[in-house]
Amino acid sequence: MPRTRAAFGLGAALLVALPAGPGLPAEPSRLEMPVVYGTHLPGLGEPASRLAKLVKQLSGGAIELDLKEPGDGTEPQEILDKVSRGQVDAGFATANFWAAKVPAAALFGGFPFGPDAKGYVDWFFAGNGRTLYQEMYDEAELNVHVIPCAFGGGEASGWFAKEIRKPDDLKGFRMRSFGLGGRVMSRLGATTALVPGGKLGKAFDKHEIDGAEFLTPAVDEPQRLQDHAKLIYVPGWHQPETVFELLINQDRWSALDDREQTVLDTACRAMLLATLAESPRLQTQALADLAKDGVR
User: Fold this and answer.
1) 90-93/174-176 β-pairing
2) What is the C-alpha to C-alpha distance for residues 150 and 169, in angstroms, rounded to an integer?
C-alpha cells in the first residue's frame, strides 16, 4: 500500500475511534504528571514518556502530559495524595506504593502468585477489574480517577549470595524485601530489611544482606547487581507482573470533555497492549546478557 494511503487509513481510523468535537483550543490541556520511576529505566520509567508522546499525537496537541521525574517537586510515595488533593493534575505510578495506606491496592499493582499481564487484561476489560479498581479509591475517599495504563514486567524473585535448596535455608536469611512478598519471606523465617536500591551493591559486599529483591532483570542488569551477586532467581513469584496506573484528579478529569477523556483512555489501552508484548523480550535479553557476566 502506498505510504499516503496507509497514512490516510491510520488518520481515518483515529477519527472513527475518537468522538467528534469542536476545533482544537488555542491552548492545550496541560496536565502536570509526576512519575514513580525515572523515564530512563527500561520497561519501568520509559512507558511514561511514551504515553506522553502518544497522548499528544492522538489529541493533535490538544493534551500535553507534563512529566516530572522522581523528586522533581514530588516524591514517588507522595503521588497518590498529591493527585487526590489537586496539588498535581495526574500521576503515573503503581498501586503497590499505596498498599500500606490502601491494603487492597496490592491486588491491582501485582501481588504474590497473582496474574500475569494477559490475566490482568482479561480482568480489566472482560471482567470487573476496572470497576473494582475505581471503587477501591472511591471507598478510600481519594479524589482520583484511575486508568490501568502499562505493564512493567514480572520482577525477579531476587539476587542471592548463596543458593537456596530447601525451605530451612531461609531461616535467618537476610533479605532485602518489602510489601506482601516481604511478609511471605518473614513467615518462612527470613529477616527482611529495607535497603535503598542504590546501596544494594555495598550491602552485598559488606555481607549485610544475603539476598535482595529489586526490580525486573531489564532494570537490574544496568544497575550492575551482577558485580555483587551471581545468582538470580526467576520468575518473580512475589510479583509476576507490575501494573502501572494513570491517576488523574477527579475534578480535573470531570473538566475534560468526552474527546479528551477518550484520548487518555485509548492511549492507556494502547500502552497496555504494547508493553504486554514488549516486556518478555526485554527480560529475556537482560537475562541473556547477565549470563555472559557469569550469572546463574
Assistant:
1) unpaired
2) 36
Condensed to tens digits (0 to 9), the pLDDT of residues 49-103 reads 999 999 999 999 999 999 999 989 999 999 999 999 999 999 999 999 998 899 9
Residues sharing a CB contact under 8 Å with residue 195, sequence separation 6 or more, in sequence order: 176, 203, 208, 209, 212
CA dihedral for 58, 60, 62, 68, sign (positive or negative): positive
Residue with cell 490501568: 148
Contact 157, 235 (CB under 8 A): yes
- Give this prediction's pTM: 0.85
Pairwise CA distance, residues 280 & 80, whole Å: 29
Question: Does residue 65 sit in helix, strand or coil?
Answer: strand
Residue 168 gets which letter from DSSP?
G
Residue pair 28/62 in contact (Cβ under 8 Å)? The answer is: yes
CA proximity to 223, closest of 240, 243, 200: 200
The C-alpha cell of 151 is what? Answer: 505493564
Grid cell for residue 114:
497473582
Instruction: Strands of the chain (E only): list them.
Output: 29-34, 63-68, 90-93, 144-151, 158-160, 174-176, 191-193, 211-212, 231-233, 243-249
**pLDDT per residue over 21-60, tens digit each?**
445 445 889 999 999 999 999 999 999 999 999 999 999 9
